[in-house]
Design goal:
Blueprint (H helix, E strand, L loop, with lengths): L8 E11 L2 E10 L1 H24 L1 E7 L5 E3 L1 H7 L10 H5 L7 H5 L10 E9 L5 E10 L5 E8 L1 H15 L9 H18 L3 E8 L2 H8 L1 H18 L5 E4 L4 E7 L3 H17 L1 E4 L2 E4 L2 E7 L6 H17 L5 E3 L4
Parallel strand pairs: 13-14
Antiparallel strand pairs: 1-2, 3-4, 3-7, 5-6, 6-7, 8-10, 8-13, 9-10, 11-12
Length: 332
C-alpha cells in the first residue's frame, strides 16, 4: 500500500496553441514541500518571538549611525504609546523622548567602538500620554562600525520598587535628605560622568556656626529643629538634579553637576543669605543661625577624598576668617 501524505506544490502554465475549439496549455508542476515547511517554521518561530516579547514587554530596534535611521519593532511603539502611523523613525526622534537628565547616557550608545562594542543602560522615556517610563537597553555595535542593534525593555515596576528601597536606605532619618553613604556613591558616579563628558562638577560643604552654643543654650530638641530646617532650605535652594545631603552632625553638602566653581559660589551665597535671614523662635526669643560654606570644583585626577578635602579646607578657612561666609578652594 502506498503511503499517503500531503505535499505543497506550485504550478505555472502558458497557452501553447489552439486545436479546433480547445486551447492546449504547457505547464510546470513543482513540489515545494520542503520550502513551505521552512517558511511555516520561520513564521511559527517569529510568532513565538512576538508573543514572548509581548509577555516580557521587550522590543528591539536597529539604528544606522550614518543615515540616522532607526527601525523600531511594534513592541517598542506599544511601550511608548506611539501610533502605528508615527513614521518618524530617526535617532533624533527617539532621543527627543528621552528624559533630559538621561540624554547623555543614551547618546553614549553612539560612542561605541569595535573594541568596546556593547553597552547596557537604564533611563527614562516619555510615554505618548506625557508620563515617563523606565526602560533598559542592551546595544551592540555591528562589524560595519555604524549599525547598532539593541533590545528595549520596560522596567518601570522594577525600577520604582528599586528606587523606593534605595530611598529608605539612603535617606537621613532626621532630615529626610540623603545621608553620607548615598552622597559619596553619587559623588563617585558624577566624577566618572564629568571626566567622561569633560563637564564641570562642584561640591559645596556647609557647617552650622556655633552649633554647640545653640544646643547648650536652647536644648537638643531645638538643635534638631535647626538641623531639619537647614536641610529643608538646602534642598529647596539647589536644583532638582543636584544632590543634597547631611554628611555629619551639623554638616551638610551639595553636589552640583554641570556647574563650575563660580556658579556654585553663587548658589552657596544664596543659601548662606537664606539661612541667615530665617528666624527661629524659642521661649519668646528670636534666634538667627549662620553657616559657613566651602566650595570646590573638580580637578584632573580628583576622587571623592581629594575633592572633599579641598572643599573642607575652604570651609575651615572660612571659619577662621570670621564665619558666616562662602570661601572658595581656589583662594586657598
Amino acid at each position: 500500500m502506498v503511503e499517503q501524505k500531503v505535499v505543497w506544490v506550485s504550478g505555472r502554465a502558458v497557452p501553447d496553441k489552439q486545436v479546433e475549439d480547445n486551447l492546449i496549455w504547457n505547464g510546470l508542476f513543482i513540489d515545494n514541500t520542503d520550502k513551505k515547511s521552512l517558511e511555516l517554521e520561520l513564521k511559527r518561530t517569529n510568532d513565538e518571538l512576538k508573543r514572548a516579547q509581548k509577555v516580557g514587554r521587550v522590543g528591539h530596534w536597529q539604528a544606522n549611525l550614518k543615515s540616522r535611521e532607526l527601525i523600531r519593532s511594534t513592541m517598542v511603539r506599544e511601550l511608548l504609546g506611539l501610533e502605528k502611523t508615527d513614521s518618524n523613525t530617526s535617532i533624533e526622534r527617539f532621543n527627543s523622548l528621552v528624559h533630559p537628565d538621561d540624554l547623555e547616557d543614551v547618546k553614549s550608545l553612539e560612542r561605541l567602538t569595535p573594541d568596546n562594542n556593547k553597552l547596557q543602560i537604564q533611563h527614562r522615556m516619555q510615554h505618548a500620554d506625557g508620563h515617563y517610563i523606565w526602560v533598559e537597553e542592551f546595544a551592540e555595535l555591528q562589524d560595519d562600525g555604524y549599525t547598532l542593534i539593541g533590545t528595549f525593555r520596560d522596567i518601570t515596576e522594577q525600577k520604582t520598587l528599586e528606587l523606593e528601597l534605595l530611598k529608605k536606605s539612603s535617606t537621613d532619618r532626621m532630615t529626610g535628605i540623603y545621608n553620607r553613604g548615598y552622597f559619596t556613591e553619587q559623588v563617585d558616579k558624577e566624577l566618572s560622568r564629568a571626566k567622561r563628558n569633560g563637564r564641570p562638577l562642584s561640591l559645596i560643604i556647609l557647617d552650622i556656626d556655633h552649633f554647640k552654643n545653640c544646643n547648650d543654650s536652647y536644648g537638643h530638641p531645638f538643635g534638631d529643629e535647626v538641623i531639619i530646617k537647614i536641610a529643608s532650605l538646602l534642598k529647596n535652594t539647589v536644583r532638582s538634579h543636584d544632590t543634597a545631603a547631611r554628611i555629619g552632625g551639623e554638616e551638610f553638602a551639595a553636589l552640583l553637576p554641570e556647574t563650575n566653581q563660580a556658579d556654585a559660589a553663587l548658589v552657596a551665597e544664596k543659601l548662606r543669605t537664606t539661612i541667615s535671614a530665617h528666624k527661629f523662635s524659642k521661649n519668646g526669643d528670636d534666634i538667627f543661625v549662620t553657616v559657613t560654606l566651602g566650595v570646590a570644583e573638580v580637578q584632573s585626577g580628583d576622587n571623592w577624598t581629594k575633592l572633599f578635602n579641598r572643599a573642607d579646607k575652604a570651609l575651615y578657612r572660612g571659619k577662621q576668617s570670621g564665619r558666616d561666609q562662602v570661601f572658595l578652594a581656589s583662594d586657598l
